[in-house]
Amino acid sequence: MKTHRVNELIELLQPAWQKDSDLNLLQFLQKLADEAGYKDSLPGLTDDMLIYHLKMRDAAKTDAIPGLKKDYEEDFKSAILRARGIIKE
C-alpha cells in the first residue's frame, strides 16, 4: 500500500472510530465490513473497500461515489454527445 493511501485511510478511520471508541480496532473493522456487506474474512478486506465505505458511510444513498463523480452526466443524451466529441468541455 502506498504512503498516501495509508494516510488517507488513517484520516478517514480516526474520526469514525472515535464515535465507536468502545470497540477495539478489529471489532471496528468488522463493523465496517458488515456495514459494507462484506462477508469474507477480515484478511481479505481491501484498503479500497475501507476507504470508499468510510467516504460514503454518512452520505445519502443517491450520492455519487467519489472518483466516479468526475465522469457523471446528468442525462444520457449529454453523455453520448460528449463521448462522440460533439460536446466539448
Strand-helix topology:
Layout: H1 3-19, H2 25-36, H3 47-56, H4 76-83
Helix pairs in contact: 1-3, 2-3
Organism: Biostraticola tofi
Pfam families: DUF1040
Protein name: DUF1040 family protein
Level-1 CATH class name: Mainly Alpha
Shape: elongated
Poorly predicted tracts of residues: none
Total individual domains = 1
Return Rg in Å: 17 Å
Tell me the major beta sheet. Answer: none
Might you state the CATH topology name?
A: Conserved Hypothetical Protein Ylqf, Chain: A, domain 2
Number of strands: 0
- Give the second-level CATH assignment, the architecture: Orthogonal Bundle
pLDDT average, as an integer?
85
Question: Given the helix and strand composition, which structural class is it?
Answer: mainly alpha
In DSSP terms (H or I, runs of 4 or more residues), the helix count works out at: 4
Distance between the termini: 34 Å
Range of helix content? 40-55%
Helix and strand pattern: HHHH
The proportion of strand residues reads: under 5%
Pfam families: DUF1040
InterPro entries: DUF1040, YihD_sf
Protein name: DUF1040 family protein
Organism: Biostraticola tofi
